[in-house]
Design brief:
The complex is a heterodimer. Chain A is mainly beta. Chain A contains 4 helices and 24 strands. In chain A, the strands form 6 sheets. In chain A, strands 2-3-6-10-9-23 form a 6-stranded mixed beta sheet, with no helix packed on it. A 6-stranded mixed beta sheet of chain A has the order 12-20-21-17-16-15, with no helix packed on it. A 4-stranded antiparallel beta sheet of chain A has the order 8-7-11-13, with no helix packed on it. Chain A is globular and about 65 Å long. Chain A starts with a helix and ends with a strand. In chain B, strands 5, 11, 12, 13, 14 and 15 form a 6-stranded mixed beta sheet that branches. In chain B, strands 1, 4, 6, 9 and 10 form a 5-stranded antiparallel beta sheet that branches. In chain B, strands 2-3 form a two-stranded antiparallel sheet. The chains are: A mainly beta, B alpha+beta. The interface between A and B is large, with 44 and 41 residues.
Chain lengths: ~375, ~425
C-alpha cells in the first residue's frame, strides 16, 4: 500500500500519529463511502450526492466559462471499453470542475481541450489538462482532482483549445481559437466541509439518477428533447443504457461538407441560420438529406460525446448508406453524430456504436454506456 | 547541500542545473574524469556531425551525451567585426584543444565535449543582404492549441558531454571565468562579444538538462512529476520510454544543407516544453501509455517491455502509421510515434532529435532540440504529430487521446541556423 492508498483507505492506524492531518482525513473518508456492491450495468443512484462551490464565471473568446470545485472524489476514466478507477490521493485538495458554454446561445460546448494551470505567487502549483466528464448532478464538465499547497489564494488559468467536433449552423465559425479564462481561487480546507454531502441510503445502487443541479447562471448541457429536435423523427431506442434518438433533415445543417476544404477555415460567406430553419436552403453543394443521431443519458438527457457511431441504411434490401457519422456540434441538434444521407420512409436504419463514449465518469455512470447493442429503426 | 548525502550521478546533474564555479569544483571532485586533450585539426566541417563521436548501444543506436547546456546570447555590437569573429573562433578552438570529442574508457566510449553555435533569424536581420540559401523563419505556433513565446536571441551555444564537469568548465571558459580548462590555456572568451540574451517573457538564457538511464529517475522531484516517484530507474527520459531509436532519427546527411554559402550546415529548432505527468503515471494505465506513445497495436500485442529497449533499433511503428484514422475511430486513441511516422520520406524521419530533459525552474521540462535541413521539415513533422486530421473523430481531441499532446505544453520556440564549422563565428548572411 503506498502513501496515497494509505491516506485514502483510512483506519485507526492512519489517524494515530497524523494529528495534523486528522480532521482533513476524517472528512475525506466520511465523504467517500464504499461503492455499492453489485452495481448494475446501467445508470444507477450513487452512494451520495455532493454539492459544489462556485469560484466564478467569466467570459473568454466565444465562451462563457465557470470554475467550480467540490471535495476530492473518485472517478473513472474510460479507455476503449475499459474503465480505470482514479482514487483520491492523500495530497488532493479539491475536485476542480469547469463548464464552458457558447456566450450567445448558452449551450454547453463539448470541449475536450481544457487545461488548468494553478499558481501561487507566480509559482506553478499544478498544471494539467482536465478530463471531459459526466456527472449526474454536475452534468457535462471538465474536471480532475487537484493538489494545492494548502490554504491560500491561487490564480487559476483555464486554457481552452479549439473544439474538435465539426461545428454547424450558428456556431459553424466558432470555437476554433485558443483562449484563456482566469480566476482567483481563495481556498480554505475548512470550506470543503461546508459543501453539501448527502447520502442516498435508500436509493443507492438502484437504476436511476439524481437530477442535475441548478448552478445559477451556469447552463447545464442537455440534449434537446426528441420533440424539439429539428427535422423528422426517425425513432428513439435504448442501447448500452443510453437513449438514442435519430432524426432526418432534408438538407444538412450549414457547415457540413466543407471540412475537406481546409482545417480551421472560416465558413466564408455562409449566412448560416440554425439547422432547423435552414432546411429549405442550400447547404453546400449537396442536394442530399442528413441523418442526425443523438445519444444521451437516460433521465437527465446529457449528450454522450466522444463516441464512434456508424449507420447503415437499406432500402428494399439494398444498402443505400453505410459509414461512420461525424461528431458534430450544432446549437439546434445539440452534440450529435451526423452524415449526409437520403433517408426515405420505409428504409431500415441500423446504428452501431463502434467505440463507447470516451468520457470520464462520476459515480453512477461508470458502469453504463460501455457496451452497446446495434439499434434498428424503420424510417 | 551536503554532497555526501547525494548520489554521485544526481549530484552531477544538480551541479549542471545550478552551474557556476562552486558547482564545478564540487562536481569535479566527484567525477574526476581523466580526459586527454583534443585535436581540432581533424574535426568535421559539419558542426552537427556528432554521431561519429557518440557511443552506440547493443542495437546500434547512437547514445546521446548525458549532460547538456544551451546558452542563448545576444551580440553586443551591431554589424559583426572581423575582430569579434576571431575572438569567437579562438574561444571555441580553445575548448576543442582542451577536450576530445570522445575518448575510449574501460567502460566504453564516452563523449568529452561536443558543441554547436547557431544563429537566429533576428541575428541575420542586422545585415543588408538576406540570408542566402536557407529559409530561416521566425518561430511560430505550430498547433491550434499552443501559444508559445518566440525566442529571439542572436545566438545559441549548445555544449554536451558525458561529464557534467566538462559542460560546466567549458561554459565557464566561454564566459571568461576560467583561464584553463583540462590543463589547456583559454585563448579567448565570449564575454566581450556576447551578453546573455534579453528574451521575451523573461525566458531563461541558460537551459540545462540531461538524457540517459537513471538521470530522469534521479531528478523526478520536480513540479510535473507526481510525488509517487514513478519514473523508472532505467528510463532515459521522464516519460518512461526510449526514444532515440536509430530508425526514428534522420541521418546527419539528411539534415544537412546541401548548397549555397551554408552548405554543410543545418537548421536547429529549440523548444521549451513542460511536462505534466501526474495523469500519465497515476491515472492512465500502462497499456494506455504504450498506446499513445507508440501505437495502439503495440499495446494490444504487448510489444513493449519496460522502457521499450526490446524494440531494438526501431520503434516499429511504420506498419501502424497507416492506421491512424482507423485507430482513432475504433480504439479512441492514436500513438505519438505512429502519427509522427507519417512525416517520413522514403521510410526515414526528416528530423534528427538532440533533445534532453531538464529540471529548469523546478519543473519537468523537455528542451526539444532538433536538426533538419530546413525548418519546414520540422514543421511538417510537428504537423504530423498534431494529428489535427483525426482530432474530429470521436474520442480523439485536439490533445486528449492524441498521442502525448495531453501531457506536454510548448512554452517557447526558437529557430536557428547552424553554419558549417568554418563559418560558425558571427557569419555574414551570404
Amino acid at each position: 500500500m503506498d502513501r496515497r492508498q494509505f491516506l485514502a483507505a483510512g483506519g485507526a492506524a492512519a489517524a494515530a500519529g497524523l494529528a495534523g492531518c486528522r480532521s482533513m482525513f476524517q472528512t475525506r473518508s466520511a465523504r467517500s463511502p464504499p461503492l455499492v456492491e453489485d452495481r448494475p450495468d446501467a445508470v444507477y443512484y450513487p452512494t451520495h450526492v455532493e454539492g459544489m462551490k462556485m469560484v466564478g464565471a467569466t467570459e473568454a473568446g466565444d465562451y462563457g466559462v465557470a470554475l467550480t470545485y467540490s471535495f476530492p472524489h473518485r472517478f473513472w476514466l474510460v479507455d476503449g471499453e475499459e474503465t480505470t478507477k482514479v482514487a483520491v490521493r492523500g495530497e488532493d485538495s479539491l475536485h476542480m470542475m469547469s463548464v464552458v458554454w457558447d456566450r450567445e446561445t448558452g449551450t454547453v460546448v463539448p470541449n475536450s481541450s481544457i487545461k488548468t494551470t494553478v499558481s501561487a505567487d507566480g509559482e506553478v502549483v499544478a498544471e494539467k489538462p482536465l478530463w471531459s466528464m459526466l456527472s449526474q448532478n454536475m452534468g457535462v464538465h471538465a474536471g480532475d482532482n487537484i493538489a494545492l499547497d494548502g490554504d491560500g489564494t491561487y490564480e487559476v488559468d483555464l486554457e481552452i483549445g479549439p473544439v474538435s467536433a465539426r461545428r454547424t449552423g450558428a456556431v459553424a465559425d466558432r470555437f476554433d481559437e485558443l483562449t484563456t479564462a482566469s480566476f482567483t481561487l481563495a481556498f480554505r480546507q475548512s470550506t470543503l466541509e461546508d459543501i453539501s454531502f448527502e447520502r442516498l441510503p435508500d436509493k443507492q445502487g438502484e437504476k436511476g439518477a439524481v437530477e442535475g443541479m441548478e448552478m445559477g447562471d451556469v447552463p447545464v448541457a442537455r440534449a434537446p428533447d426528441p420533440d424539439s429536435l429539428p427535422g423528422t423523427a426517425v425513432g428513439t431506442a435504448e442501447s448500452g443504457g443510453a437513449r438514442v434518438v435519430a432524426v432526418r433533415l432534408s438538407t444538412p445543417p450549414a457547415g457540413v461538407g466543407r471540412e475537406d476544404e481546409s482545417e480551421n477555415e472560416s465558413a466564408g460567406e455562409s449566412e448560416s441560420e440554425s439547422a432547423g430553419e435552414s432546411e429549405s436552403e442550400s447547404a453546400g453543394e449537396s442536394e442530399s438529406g442528413y441523418l442526425a443521431v443523438s445519444p444521451r443519458t437516460p433521465y437527465n438527457q446529457y449528450p454522450l460525446a466522444f463516441t464512434t457511431v456508424s449507420a447503415t441504411v437499406t432500402r428494399e434490401g439494398d444498402e443505400v448508406f453505410a459509414g461512420r457519422l461525424d461528431p458534430t456540434f450544432d446549437p439546434d441538434l445539440g452534440y450529435h453524430y451526423g452524415g449526409v444521407a437520403d433517408l426515405a420512409s420505409g428504409d431500415d436504419l441500423t446504428l452501431s456504436v463502434d467505440l463507447p463514449p470516451q468520457l470520464a465518469r462520476h459515480e453512477g455512470y461508470e458502469t453504463a454506456f460501455l457496451s452497446f447493442e446495434d439499434v434498428s429503426m424503420t424510417v | 547541500m551536503p554532497p555526501s548525502r547525494i548520489p554521485r550521478r544526481e549530484f552531477v546533474k544538480t551541479a549542471v542545473a545550478i552551474g557556476g564555479t562552486a558547482a564545478l569544483s564540487a562536481c569535479l571532485g566527484r567525477e574526476d574524469p581523466d580526459l586527454p586533450r583534443g585535436d581540432p585539426s581533424g574535426y568535421p566541417r559539419r558542426q552537427h556531425a556528432w554521431n561519429g563521436a557518440l557511443p552506440t548501444d547493443d542495437h546500434g543506436n547512437d547514445v546521446p551525451p548525458r549532460h547538456h547546456v544551451v546558452r542563448l546570447l545576444d551580440y553586443r555590437g551591431e554589424v559583426p567585426t572581423d575582430a569579434d569573429r576571431e575572438t569567437v573562433e579562438a574561444a571555441l578552438r580553445s575548448l576543442e584543444r582542451a577536450y576530445p570529442r570522445s575518448h575510449e574508457t574501460d567502460g566504453g566510449r564516452r563523449v568529452g565535449l561536443l558543441s554547436t553555435v547557431a544563429y537566429s533569424p533576428s541575428y541575420f536581420e542586422r545585415f543588408d543582404a538576406p540570408l542566402d540559401g536557407v529559409d530561416l523563419p521566425a518561430p511560430e505556433p505550430l498547433a491550434p492549441f499552443e501559444d508559445p513565446t518566440p525566442d529571439d536571441p542572436d545566438a545559441a551555444v549548445h555544449l554536451a558531454s558525458d561529464y557534467g564537469s566538462v559542460v560546466l568548465a567549458a561554459e565557464e571558459a566561454l564566459l571568461g571565468e576560467r583561464e584553463t580548462v583540462n590543463g589547456v590555456e583559454v585563448d579567448a572568451d565570449l564575454s566581450g562579444v556576447f551578453a546573455g540574451a534579453d528574451l521575451a517573457g523573461d525566458g531563461r538564457t541558460r537551459r540545462t538538462g540531461f538524457i540517459g538511464a537513471g538521470l530522469p529517475a534521479d531528478h523526478q522531484d520536480v513540479e510535473g512529476v507526481p510525488d509517487s516517484e514513478p519514473v523508472p530507474e532505467e528510463s532515459p527520459l521522464y516519460m518512461g520510454f526510449e526514444s532515440g531509436f536509430e530508425g526514428s532519427q534522420a541521418t546527419e546527411d539528411r539534415v544537412t544543407v546541401d548548397s549555397g554559402p551554408f552548405a554543410g550546415g543545418t537548421t536547429q529548432h529549440l523548444s521549451q516544453i513542460r511536462l505534466n505527468l501526474q495523469q500519465w503515471y497515476e491515472q492512465d494505465s500502462r497499456e494506455h501509455r504504450e498506446s499513445v506513445m507508440f501505437c495502439p497495436v503495440h499495446a494490444e500485442e504487448g510489444r513493449i517491455e519496460g522502457t521499450g529497449e526490446n524494440l531494438g533499433a526501431a520503434n516499429r511503428v511504420a506498419d501502424c502509421a497507416d492506421d491512424v484514422a482507423a485507430d482513432a475511430a475504433e480504439s479512441g486513441k492514436v500513438g505519438h510515434a505512429q502519427k509522427v511516422a507519417r512525416a517520413r520520406e522514403d521510410g526515414r524521419p526528416r528530423i534528427l532529435r538532440r533533445d534532453f530533459d531538464s529540471t529548469d525552474d523546478g519543473r519537468a521540462t523537455v528542451h526539444f532540440l532538433s536538426l533538419q535541413s530546413d525548418i519546414g521539415e520540422f514543421v511538417a513533422t510537428r504537423e504530423a504529430m498534431n494529428g489535427t486530421d483525426v482530432a474530429d473523430s470521436a474520442a480523439v481531441g485536439q490533445r486528449s487521446n492524441n498521442g502525448i499532446l495531453q501531457y506536454i505544453s510548448v512554452e517557447r520556440r526558437g529557430n536557428y541556423l547552424v553554419p558549417p564549422r568554418d563559418r560558425r563565428a558571427l557569419p555574414a548572411p551570404d
